[in-house]
């Protein structure tokens, strides 16, 4: 109940403070907002297939044994929780509104290398890939069982991202960053304050000089909101955008530091 009350209060504050394009004075942010954030839901054969897959997953009764990393830290064997795919799809996978946003951001920004933290069942990965098929794409997933299901979806969609399975703090250290400098990073894997801030700080040292960081559910809890405030206040972030459901940060931009709360 406390979390729900927090979310309601955060939503009210967002609604009171959010502005439209007429409050944007940055030419870059104005163009981004008008072309990539505002247009609304995407209706195309590609997005239709992704949403068709979502409908199938919401009815999928298969049970997956999913690793519980929160309970398995400290050198202990990681326990597993049995979860139906339908529940995973219903509680974790972003819907068409934010899928369309990821598609448009990938399409508009044309990144060379995308890093996604939190593959889940692969729906957001599909949106990112279809938005910019030429980008190199790496996606990290903590659960082996969920990652295997996602890979089935990638094969069906004829995309071939690099899928890395394992607990994030370990897999991040195992990546050869000299060969992978992501300039588009989507973080949707651990909705807690300290890990989220730690991922940002680590990836700042590995990302391309000019990069975009996208954080999911920035007002999901007091901890996530605090993490967002720390990240957007970082001196290396020139532009930050609060869309309530997601937060976007740009680094390496030649402009004064600005923060925007925009209607979405």
Report what the structure shows.
This protein has 264 residues and is an alpha/beta fold. The chain has two domains: 2-54 and 92-261, Vaccinia Virus protein VP39 (Rossmann fold, 3-Layer(aba) Sandwich); 58-87, no CATH class. The protein has ten helices and ten strands. It has helices spanning 2-17, 27-37, 45-57, 85-92, 96-109, 123-131, 144-156, 168-174, 193-204, 222-233; strands at 63-67, 80-84, 113-117, 136-141, 162-165, 184-187, 211-216, 237-242, 246-251, 258-261. It has an eight-stranded mixed sheet, with helices on both faces. Strands 1-2 form a two-stranded antiparallel ribbon. Strand 6, helix 9 (193-204) and strand 7 form a beta-alpha-beta unit. Helix 2 (27-37) packs across helix 5, helix 5 packs parallel to helix 6 and helix 9 (193-204) runs parallel beside helix 10. The two termini are 26 Å apart.
Summarize the structure.
The protein is 44% helix and 19% strand. It has helices at residues 2-17, 27-37, 45-57, 85-92, 96-109, 123-131, 144-156, 168-174, 193-204, 222-233, and strands at residues 63-67, 80-84, 113-117, 136-141, 162-165, 184-187, 211-216, 237-242, 246-251, 258-261.
């Amino acid at each position: 109940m406390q979390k729900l009350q927090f979310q309601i209060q955060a939503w009210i504050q967002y609604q009171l403070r959010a502005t439209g394009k007429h409050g944007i004075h940055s030419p870059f942010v104005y163009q981004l907002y008008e072309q990539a954030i505002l247009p609304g839901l995407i209706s195309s054969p590609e997005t239709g297939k992704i949403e068709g897959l979502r409908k199938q997953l919401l009815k999928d009764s298969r049970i997956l044994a999913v690793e519980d990393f929160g309970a398995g830290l400290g050198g202990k064997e990681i326990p597993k929780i049995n979860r139906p795919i339908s529940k995973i799809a219903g509680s974790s996978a972003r819907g068409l509104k934010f899928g369309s946003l990821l598609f448009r951001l990938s399409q508009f920004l044309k990144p060379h290398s995308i890093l996604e933290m939190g593959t889940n069942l692969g729906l957001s990965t599909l949106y990112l890939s279809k938005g910019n098929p030429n980008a190199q794409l790496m996606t990290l997933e903590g659960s082996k069982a969920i990652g295997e299901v996602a890979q089935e979806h990638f094969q069906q969609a004829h995309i071939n991202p690099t899928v890395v399975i394992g607990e994030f703090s370990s897999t991040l250290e195992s990546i050869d960053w000299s060969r992978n400098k992501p300039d588009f990073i989507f973080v949707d894997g651990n909705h807690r304050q300290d890990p989220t801030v730690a991922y940002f700080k680590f990836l700042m040292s590995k990302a391309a000089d000019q990069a975009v960081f996208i954080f999911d559910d920035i007002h999901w809890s007091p901890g996530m909101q605090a993490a967002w405030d720390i990240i957007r206040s970082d001196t290396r972030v020139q532009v930050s955008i609060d869309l309530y459901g997601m937060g976007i940060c740009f680094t390496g931009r030649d402009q004064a530091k600005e923060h925007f709360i925009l209607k979405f």
